[in-house]
Amino acid sequence: MPKEYTRAQLALRNGQDRPEIWCAYQGYIYDLGRSKLWRNGKHYEHWAGQDLTEEMADAPHNENVFDKFDVVGKLV
Predict the structure, then answer these.
(1) Environment class of residue 51 by beta-carbon count within 10 Å: exposed (0-12), middle (13-18) or buried (19+)?
(2) Which of 11, 43, 46, 61 has the fewest Cβ atoms within 10 Å of its own Cβ atom?
(3) How many CA atoms lie within 13 A of 5 on its CB side?
(4) Tens of pLDDT, residues 25-65
(5) If 0-12 CB within 10 Å is exposed, 13-18 middle and 19+ buried, where does residue 22 land?
(6) Are the C-beta atoms of residues 23 and 29 closer than 8 Å to each other?
(7) How far apart (Å, rounded) are the C-alpha atoms in residues 60 and 31?
(8) Where are the alpha helices (DSSP H) in 1-76?
(9) Which of 14, 9, 53 minimizes the C-alpha distance to 33?
């Protein structure tokens, strides 16, 4: 069973407060730290440490972009 994290715990993994760069999508939390597009916890107008589920509708890519990243837990 994946480890569970609250929104407050996810918010700390923003590339600023802690070195981890994590984002949630559809209840799962992904480690985006190895992506060059997420340096310093920012990707265009998006910030790490947040749930990006609703924002994906406006993205120029689909949800398959998360396939290349590791799931680190579930958002509760």
Answers:
(1) middle
(2) 61
(3) 25
(4) 999 999 999 999 998 899 988 999 999 999 888 887 888 89
(5) buried
(6) yes
(7) 20
(8) 7-11
(9) 14
